[in-house]
Write a structure and sequence with these properties.
CATH class: Alpha Beta
CATH topology: Peptide Methionine Sulfoxide Reductase, Chain A
Distance between the termini: 23 Å
Radius of gyration: 16 Å
Number of strands: 8
Structural class: alpha+beta
Oligomer: single chain
CATH architecture: 2-Layer Sandwich
Order of helices and strands: HHEHEHEHEEEHEEHH
CATH superfamily: Peptide methionine sulphoxide reductase MsrA
Length: 234
């Protein structure tokens, strides 16, 4: 969904779709639910870590992780393509190789990589949909993990296998592991979008239910006050 299409959704909402906003994750096939913790994880003594996660529109993914204890920063951006095409209008065409992504920085002493992945698969998006999340379609909205190193990739692959073996979802996990990709921060107006625009129709319909699910399913990891990026000028 491009910015223009999100604006159209806003116009429709104003014209009388208030009821749709009350329907949690109206477009989702796989509803958020608690998942088992990963059996493989990183040691807590590795120091500050980052991982890049993609799962649909980055507004919601960023918003979820900004409410997770132990996350020190969550930045919306692009991963999977070249620097020259790491722009919203270009990525929205679905031809750049980029996915709307979020770079999640976290303190392993407070939350492990396994904990980050648990929330990513359980709450942040539907991992049984490859190139579709809610109303958004295309490779730019794909379910993908961009690991920083081989250890992160190994843990992510092991967790996917664990979830599939446990039949944690109604369909197989289709999330792709894409190592060796550079992350590029998105334009400033995309940062903190959920926190700054909680009444925006797209956010109300598609993303606020994810925050509610995080609070309900993982109350010990939830924090009420999000950690915000602030202006990220480009």
């Amino acid at each position: 969904m491009t910015r223009a299409r999100r604006t159209i959704l806003g116009s429709l909402f104003s014209a009388g779709l208030a009821a749709a906003a009350a329907a949690p994750l109206a477009f989702a096939d796989e509803k958020p639910h608690a998942l088992p913790a990963p059996t493989q994880d990183e040691p807590a003594l590795r120091g500050p870590q980052t991982i890049v996660l993609a799962g649909g529109c980055f507004w919601g993914v960023q918003g979820v992780f900004q409410h997770v204890k132990g996350v020190t920063r969550a930045v919306s951006g692009y991963a999977g393509g070249a620097a020259a095409t790491a722009r919203y209008e270009m990525t929205s065409e679905g031809t750049t190789g980029h996915a709307e992504s979020v770079e999640v920085s976290f303190d392993p002493a407070q939350i492990s990589l396994g904990g980050i992945l648990q929330i990513y698969f359980a709450v942040a998006h539907d991992p049984t949909e490859l190139n579709r999340q809610g109303p958004d379609h295309g490779t730019q909205y794909r379910s993908a993990i961009f690991p920083r190193d081989d250890e992160q990739a190994k843990i992510a692959r092991a967790y996917i296998a664990q979830l599939d073996q446990a039949h944690a979802f109604n369909a197989p996990v289709v999330t792709k592991i894409e190592p060796g990709k550079t992350f590029y921060p998105a334009e400033a107006y995309h940062q903190d979008f959920l926190a700054l625009n909680p009444d925006y129709p797209y956010i109300v319909v598609n993303d606020l239910p994810k925050i509610d699910a995080l609070k309900r399913l993982y109350p010990d990891e939830y924090r009420a006050d999000p950690v915000l990026v602030g202006a990220v000028a480009r």
